[in-house]
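Side project, low priority. Logging it here so it doesn't get lost.
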Amino acid sequence: MNKQDINKVVVRDAFVRETTAEMIENRQVDFVISSEAIDSYGTVFKMDGWDLKRYLQNPVVCYQHRSSTDNPDDLIGVSTLRIEDGKLIGRVTFEEADVNPKADKIFRKVQNGTLKMASVGARILDAHYGDEKAGENADVLYFDRAELVEWSVVSVGANPEAHKRNAQTLEEIRTALVVDVSVVEQEEIKVNENRSVEEAQIVINKNRI
């Protein structure tokens, strides 16, 4: 599957981790951006497939994804990224109160437990259905390469409309994968035009065994 065949952005929720006294003193909070666990969408982000270069050129953290507003206080801090114990961790350092009162209030709400979530945007570049021979789940979509676009501290996770857009995007990716495999294996797999994506994937998985 080539990059141009996918190139679609999906959104995932991220969750705050326990914060140490030293981190609080430095106005820092960690969020688990991603892991290799199967998420609620039936997808997995491969840790060695994250492309962080573009994000790290300007590693700002916003509030509620407000990166395009004319209020500079919606940019609440900057972040560093690291992979730890099979998880992609984002550490945000919030701006000081005298520079950004909104950032200070958000930081204090995170400390208080009122705010405990973030939202992550990732551009999917390459993906595949699970290969049972490699010990993967054939019903799971594995994202082999993904580019981190941005992440924001949010009051709640993805809303119903965002979940709907996510579902639509994932269906487009799944359809593209089925079509791609059917072309490569066209001598072995005949995908009926009236067959659903799920039915076509069952045929593809059977031919892989």
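Brief comment: Residues 181-193 have pLDDT under 50 and may be disordered.
Revisit when time allows.
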